[in-house]
Amino acid sequence: MAAKLNIVAVGASITYGLKSVGGNGYRDDLFSALQKSGNQVHMVGTQKSGTMSQPFSEGYPGFTIDKVKAKITENWNKLQYPPNVIVTLVGTNDQIPGKNLACGSVDRFGGLLDQYLSLCPDCTIVASTLPPNGNAKENKNIDNYNTGITKLVADRQAKGQHILIVNGNKGLSLATDFSQDKTHPNNQGYGMIGSRFADQVQSAIDKGWIAAPQKFKKRDVWGARANLDFGS
């Protein structure tokens, strides 16, 4: 089964694609995999990073969950096209030791999900757990956060919300799948996350969860309206 997808990727530096060769992060692997499955895909966002053909996202390096929440709220009506899918990987900056933000971060992530659904009640959300980290204290915080948001997503799905979880942690090796900072994946690690996002978006398509795209907005930041033939 295929669908017409307007996807916004929301998060911090990993969504932006920091430390990846080409600057695309996981987004290009997500985009390419969904296209290969026969879907028509638009990546939307006010931020531009990477060499991919549609390099748009809502990725903000250094941002915490609450800062991302404020930014996506501010920018929602500035997106090229109204999304019908939100993919999100966020929370790493809340887990940094010394910031004292790890406590309560699962609840703040829940508030972010609420805000997504307030902005777009018909959107399907695909959320990812956080990748591992080379700092032992931060990695412990990440493990706790990942356990919490996995349960949170399961509870919300059981209540009928169209939300799925991606395991962005399992199988990623700090030795082979990360850049030297041991926080941001390398292209191999990003590719694993992007493929997992694509699998879950495709699962949502197969479940019949994806709402039809809304009408185009007037402006077209790609300058290629003639080649974008759906959503009107």
From TrEMBL:
One of its GO terms (molecular function) is phosphatidylcholine lysophospholipase activity. Residues 9-190 form the SGNH hydrolase-type esterase domain. InterPro entries: Ester_Hydrolysis_Enzymes, SGNH_hydro, SGNH_hydro_sf. Pfam families: Lipase_GDSL_2. Gene3D superfamilies: SGNH hydrolase (3.40.50.1110). This is SGNH hydrolase-type esterase domain-containing protein.
